């Protein structure tokens, strides 16, 4: 009996260790998550999209820091002290969904974040993370976390060869010396290139802005070879004017754009428009 109990204890400890190893976080991050949950859970009658905006407001002025997700092996990184444009949007969406759940908690947030960030919600090495944002939109649409609304707003196809990561492996530490990962990314890129994608060109944005909503998550499309999207943000209206909330590398923190989204896009030669994901 003691032997069975000992083996069971070892098994439980081993399983717990595996689960713990799948995520990286600090006490400060847990405190930030719990603080935001505490503030937002009283507003859970609001839509998920509205809560995305509210979460963004509570993360305002958080420092911009790139490349915070890189771990070996691949693990769920929880870092709300430092954000880039994608992790800002992901965390806001995960916080909003957590606060819409029956029992909001840090553990629920972790599950939501993993479900959002990884293909099919499963961590299986570096290629399982949704690196291309158009792929992120499609996968989260399939999981019914967001709805890809670019087609219904503006049925213009985004036809482009996506291959930046496989063509620049030295820019990605995980790819530079791993042929297996590189082959997996190359396969994903080919599938993404063939997929049916739509976007809203910059020149049509002002005429169609009334079809966008607060809390919509946008990916800014680009004419850079091999890339689909170079920046991510969250739609916020100021009166009738369309702006967006984002982790800005230029401002080095989370801000709401002073210029309208149309002006922002027009002033950037590489920007061609936006893809839109609406939180469900």
Model description:
This protein is an alpha+beta fold and 280 residues long. Helix content is 44%, strand content 18%. The protein contains 12 helices and 10 strands. The chain has helices at 2-21, 27-40, 48-58, 85-100, 106-117, 133-142, 150-153, 164-167, 173-176, 179-194, 202-208, 261-266; strands at 23-24, 76-77, 146-148, 156-157, 198-201, 217-222, 229-238, 241-248, 253-256, 271-279. It is globular and about 45 Å long. Residues 1-21 have low confidence and may be disordered.
Strand-residue fraction?
15-25%
The biggest sheet, with number of strands, parallel, antiparallel or mixed sense and barrel status, is: 8 strands, antiparallel
Name of the CATH class of the largest domain: Mainly Beta
* Annotated CATH homologous superfamily of the largest domain: putative xylanase like domain
CATH architecture of the largest domain: Roll
Task: Assign the CATH topology of the largest domain.
Answer: putative xylanase like fold
- Total strands: the figure is 10
Computed Rg: 20 Å
Structural class: alpha+beta
Number of helices: 12
Low-confidence stretches: 1-21
Q: Tell me the helix content.
A: 40-55%
Shape: globular
- The domain tally reads 2
Distance between the termini: 50 Å
What is the succession of H and E elements?
HEHHEHHHEHEHHHEHEEEEHE
